[in-house]
Amino acid sequence: MMSFEMNDRKKIGLGLTGFGVFFSFLGIIFFFDKGLLAMGNILFISGVTLTIGLKSSTQFFMKRSNFKGTISFGIGFVLVVIGWPILGMILETYGFVILFSGFWPTLAVFLQKIPVLGWLFQQPYVRSFFDRYRGKRVPV
Q: Which residues cross the membrane (predicted)?
């Protein structure tokens, strides 16, 4: 099976990831509701696992360079579940940024190619910010 092939498992995984982001957003909008935040976290993690596979996600989260982000995200998740959603979300955000920092350059290139929104990201000041990371782009 080729890695870019979209099968049913990956479609379900992308849907779960999207719902996870949506529920986390709702949890933040509704004054850090711990139920919505916990549901969003569970859906996000299960969606990522279904999208890239159990072995790949285990390797990604347990990689030595991502260990600090994994620990931060995990402790933040536990804090959200036990009732400290603000501190938990701060730790989760920090862990998310550390874990997925390798994908920011790829996201920057993608945003610059969107027809209407791309114009904003191609302005000189914004473009100079994105060009700093162009050499570190992760192939996806």
A: 12-32, 38-54, 66-87, 93-111
